[in-house]
Amino acid sequence: MAHQGPERRRNAAETRQALLDAATTLFAERGFDSTTVRDIAGLAEANQALVFRYFGSKEALFEEVMAGVGRERLATTPAEHLLSAVLRDLLAPAADRDRSLEAFLRSGGGGGAVSAVREQLGEEYARVLRTLTSGPDAALRADLVLAWLLGIGLMRVVAPKEPLSTADSTEVSTLVLGAVSTLLERVDRAPAPPRTAPAAPPIPTQAAAPASGRLPQET
């Protein structure tokens, strides 16, 4: 449902981020085709016109959702650890899961632009995975691994099926990485550690007052 009340007062950067966050949530829950610009603007408490001002189109907004975490992971994760990082984010509890991965999984029926985004991102991941084997059929091996990841995501997130849907994430990662190592011999077989929340800033302590009850004087 679109937001009916007054828009929240925010600067341009905050509004753009609110629209991006709303789109990520809705694409993850409904997929691209079942999410409208009006839905996104309503969840972000912003005017629909701002979606087009900041992103140009719903397709371009979807591309940015996909590019955010997906390309950041590619840029910051060593090739041998990439698969374990994807599995960690895919198998995490719903509250900690990478929503862009969910959006990717639920948007398989999107139009040409959406399919192009999915194919491009998939090829970028496949290109990295191909470096993990010396086999002459490296491209086929990488595609087989990606297909397995998609299947795991579908049965874990989109159409949950027991026992995979509730299986322990570390156990699943260990089994998958062990099996994948027969295709990509340089993959790291150790599951990635869980993401940790940023440490809270220390609470400043107040100097104890002297026995007289008077605080020390500044000099």
What does this structure look like?
The protein is mainly α. It has a domain at 57-180: Tetracycline Repressor, domain 2. 58% of the residues lie in helices and 0% in strands. The protein contains nine helices and no strands. It has helices at 12-30, 37-44, 48-55, 58-76, 79-91, 99-106, 112-129, 138-158, 169-180. The protein is elongated, with a radius of gyration of 23 Å. Mean pLDDT is 86; it is low at 1-6 and 197-219.
The CATH class designation of the domain at 57-180 is Mainly Alpha
Name the assembly state. single chain
Shape: elongated
Major β-sheet annotation: none
Helical content stands at 55-70%
Strand percentage lies at under 5%
Determine the structural class based on helices, strands and strand pairing: mainly alpha
Order of H and E elements: HHHHHHHHH
Which fold name fills CATH's third level, the topology of the domain at 57-180? Tetracycline Repressor, domain 2
Please state the average pLDDT score. 86
Query: What's the architecture of the domain at 57-180 in CATH terms?
Result: Orthogonal Bundle
Measured between the Cα atoms of the first and last residue, the distance is 62 Å
H/I helix tally: 9
Poorly predicted tracts of residues: 1-6, 197-219
Return Rg in Å. Answer: 23 Å
